[in-house]
Write a structure and sequence with these properties.
With 187 residues, the protein is α/β, with parallel strands linked by helices. The protein has one domain: Ribonuclease Inhibitor (Leucine-rich repeat, LRR (right-handed beta-alpha superhelix), Alpha-Beta Horseshoe). Helix content is 17%, strand content 12%. Strands 1-2-3-4-5-6-7-8 form an eight-stranded mixed sheet, covered by helices on one side. The longest helix is centred in the N-terminal third of the chain and has 12 residues. The model has no long low-confidence stretch (mean pLDDT 97).
Length: 187
């Protein structure tokens, strides 16, 4: 018999019991590694109005949803899930500063341009293979720290230096790429 997936509501209730805190008042909520795993982000997350950091990593989530009411959210951790696109992220565009979404099957960055306050994007080990998708990051003026290693686009470059030069030339705003500071020539 297959186990029913954990719902966000159940995961939040479990978190409250373990932490002996009220989730709607908490600033940091960690719902990673649920067993059985969470498969759907749902409206229960929107009750977390004071949450500044939400971790849902290492579950089986396939799309971003249910976060429209999270008006304080600054850091969203969704690594190691089954998320295929960034659709749904726009609902927290005003507040989100960091998106940790490595190890997912994302191949397109459509919609990233609304993230005007995004400073940190960890999107390593996804399926992005086109420069046209990478170039969408030019629409994120606040972006400073990008981890992109492990994507086909990065891996298909002749060497690390070519990758770093190409990436940093395309994204003039970033100061750190794949964990290493970017040194730019100044006049």
């Amino acid at each position: 018999m297959a186990l029913k997936p954990t719902t966000c509501k159940e995961a939040i209730a479990r978190w409250e019991k373990e932490k002996e805190e009220v989730a709607t008042e908490a600033k940091v909520i960690e719902l990673q590694f649920q067993w059985p795993p969470i498969e759907k982000m749902d409206g229960a997350l929107s009750t977390l109005v004071n949450c500044e950091k939400l971790s849902l990593s290492s579950n089986m989530i396939d799309k971003i949803a249910g976060i429209a009411g999270m008006r304080s959210l600054k850091i969203l951790s969704l690594g190691r899930n089954y998320i295929k696109s960034l659709a749904g992220i726009e609902t927290v565009a005003e507040t989100l500063e960091e998106l940790w979404i490595s190890y997912n099957p994302i191949d397109k960055l459509r919609g990233i341009g609304v993230m005007k306050n995004l400073r940190v994007l960890y999107i390593s080990n996804n399926l992005i293979k086109e420069w046209v998708e990478f170039n969408r990051l030019q629409e994120c003026p606040a972006l400073r720290d990008l981890v992109f290693i492990g994507n086909p686009l990065c891996e298909n470059q002749p060497d690390v230096e070519t990758w770093r030069t190409q990436a940093s030339n395309r994204l003039q705003q970033i100061t750190k790429l794949d964990g290493i500071p970017i040194v730019r020539e100044t006049d």
